[in-house]
Amino acid sequence: MTAAMRPQAAACPACVAAPDANTIQQDMAPSEAHIMLSLPTIHCAACMNTVERALMAHPQVRKARVNLTMKRVSIEADPDVVAEDLVPVVEGAGYEAHELDTTALSATQTDKAGRDLLMRLAVAGFAAMNVMLLSIAVWSGAEGPTRDLFHWVSAFIVLPAVAFSGQPFYRNAWQALKVGQLNMDVPITLAIALALITSLWETTLSGEHAYFDAAIALTFFLLTGRYLDHRTRSVARSAAEELAALEVPRAFRLTDEGEEQVNVADLAISDLIRVRPGGRMPVDGEITKGTSELDRSLLTGETLPVFAEPGTAVSAGEVNLTGPLTVRATAVGRDTSLHRMADLVAVAESGRSRYTSLADRAAKLYAPGVHILSALAFVGWYLYSGDLRVALNIAAAVLIITCPCALGLAVPAVTTAASGRLFKKGLLIKDSTALERLAQVDTVVFDKTGTLTAGTPELTNLGDFTRTDLEIALALAEGSSHPLSISLSDAARSAGIHPAAVTDQTEVPGHGTQGLWKGQRVQLGRSSWVNGGQTEMTAAWLRVGEGEPQAFTFTDRLREGAQEAVKALQDKGLRVILMSGDTTAAVETLANRLGIQQWLAEALPQDKAARIDALSKEGAHVLMVGDGLNDTAALTAAHASISPASALDAARVASDIVLLGSTLAPIPDAVQTATKATKRIRENFTIATWYNIIAVPLAIAGLCSPLIAALAMSSSSITVSLNALRLR
Q: What is the DSSP track for 170-212?
């Protein structure tokens, strides 16, 4: 039996997105079924094609479309098709598949904000090109009626274009003014408005100068910066919403009449629920019947499955691995542990939103200064000349030439350059302020399972066994989906071992696998089941006939680059902490192995979030690196956060940066790049400031024509962009 054909249990935190045992169809309309499956193991275009071809070969599937980024496939099929009919099709093609509850997700996942900005940018760019052609004719010496005609044509092009394209700035400026604040969009909006009013007045009076070209160019440059800023982030949905999508959509309730399938929302406390092998717990409760093993890594980060029997307490989101269980519900709906975790994430998200970016902090200083200068220029020239027209023209020139464009590009230009550099190294920046916050980090907190370790056990003593014992162990291991069995099977196969002829194989839920070999009973499983001994390491015990049980010992496999990343961060002077829900012995062993002095074991999700909050109150700026559902609240509460691409969807959504590759080595470089990026942003603010110091006196003196203002504004923007490109 190959690994792809092995019975699949949703047993790892990166793979659990919905139960394969409790899967049901999601009806979109009476004429068709719309089914969404999570595909946690796909990683390339070939995987996409394989899955789509396998599904399209099914006679009742009408359409299948794989989204590689989301690791999902959307399927349209005949009305009577359910997800449990299609999961085996995907698994037969060699990939894990679990249903995802589409009703808990947003109705649309399209990037509406990005499309809207791009459309407005295109309109502004088209209008700017046409107006510049007309302006060249005016600058070249057009006079009288010809000049007036060109100005009026420019007005008819620019006014609707600016009214449409500049709406993101107007809305943001209004939101700030409503609460008595100033942001960068306030002087931008005022500059555009004053430029248009002045230009219309000049055109009406047949004046020589108009600012239509400057107004549309300013709008175009600023929209370019805004779109670049948007492009640096992925379309991140709410982490709390993603957690809700992970809940089991329906469950099997036991009644006097038998078993019935119901919505989870219809479950009540004290209901008896059947949870099949491979399925996730829909409620918090207590086992009343059956024995099995539970994978709690989703919630607690525990590496090893936990033995479950009547009386064992279970939580929503845990995975039942080996045997059917009957659970009596003790908490349902919003009272379950999964919902409480979603609430923790929502609270942490609201806290992070209070971070003030460098651009907004600069705006608090810049906006009042520009407005005061423009107002003083207007008052001074009006008192000096008595000409309202001259005073208004100079006030508009001051607002335009003070170049909110350069300041508007200062951050997105650097962020885009830094994001491009980090993307080449395997890091995707999601949040607009992530680099600024990452540059402030002085403490790094790592999760253990799935982050510093690969989340899978690694066999350590294959060479201690005879070939015969290995052949027997391989035969027994390949009949189980237990993580230790999978590891043992992979190691034995890699060593060229072939399975022995073991017959009558059965899996005893919660204990192990047994069978007959040459008339002898052979067992592979828990120490207590085979009468084995004690070992400090994780172990699976093999017993052949009446012989002495022997232990296969396992350790957590280190993730590639973990040792190098921890050492590099410590060499930079950062404090490194290990925080895990795993056992004390496992966490201490890994901490010693990596040279981490501070560690916390057996931490629940709320404990992790509380520890992050305590460090923050002590003045630390914490970078959290984690991958599990139990890390989402901590990831969101941290000053900055990173999760691997293999992480659970909810963890990736909660984090600021996604690690695209399998190695942790790029993390120290990300901190260094963020520091350099913040330095470049400050340099850009300095460039813009010095530009204003030089240009503003010229504008106040009345020496800046619209042409000079437009050229100065463009040159400052280009300078800021070139400085940002130094990051590459």
A: HHHHHHHHHTT---THHHHHHHHHHHHHHHHHHHHTT-S---H
d(CA 357, CA 410): 12
Residue 654 lies in a domain: yes
Longest CA–CA separation in the chain, Å: 113
Which CATH number do you get for residue 444? 3.40.50.1000
Q: Report the chain (728 residues): mean pLDDT per 10 consecutive residues.
A: 38 36 38 78 77 90 81 84 82 77 50 80 90 78 81 91 91 82 75 83 81 82 73 47 58 85 84 85 89 74 75 84 88 76 55 54 66 82 84 77 64 74 78 81 88 81 88 88 84 89 84 89 88 80 89 85 91 91 81 89 83 88 84 84 74 77 85 87 79 78 68 72 71
Tell me: do 624 and 520 sit in the same domain: no
Cα distance from N-terminal residue to C-terminal residue, the chain: 49
Burial (0-12, 13-18, 19+ Cβ within 10 Å), 325? buried
Q: Are 376 and 395 in contact (CB under 8 A)?
A: no
The predicted pLDDT at position 120 comes to 92
Closest CA to 401 of 43, 715, 103: 715
Same domain, 365 and 390: yes
Residue with the two structure tokens 């939580």: 315
447 is catalytic: yes
- On whether residue 192 sits in a domain, the answer given is yes
Which residue is catalytic, options 447, 627, 631, 656?
447
Taking the C-alpha atoms of residue 713 and residue 721, their distance in angstroms, rounded to an integer, is 13
Q: What pLDDT, on a 0 to 100 scale, did the predictor assign at position 4?
A: 36
Residue 137 and residue 215 in one domain: yes
Both structure tokens of 728: 């590459």
314: CB partners within 8 A, 6+ apart: 281, 284, 285, 286, 287, 294, 308, 325, 327
Q: Give a yes or no: residue 481 inside a domain.
A: yes
Number of domains observed in the structure of the chain: 5
CB 468 within 8 A of CB 549: no
Q: Are strands 258-263 and 292-295 parallel, antiparallel or unpaired?
A: unpaired
Q: Is the dihedral of CA 713, 715, 716, 722 positive or negative?
A: positive
What is the predicted pLDDT for the residue at 123?
Answer: 93
Range of the domain at 445: 427-454+558-670
> Which tokens sit at 379?
């008052």
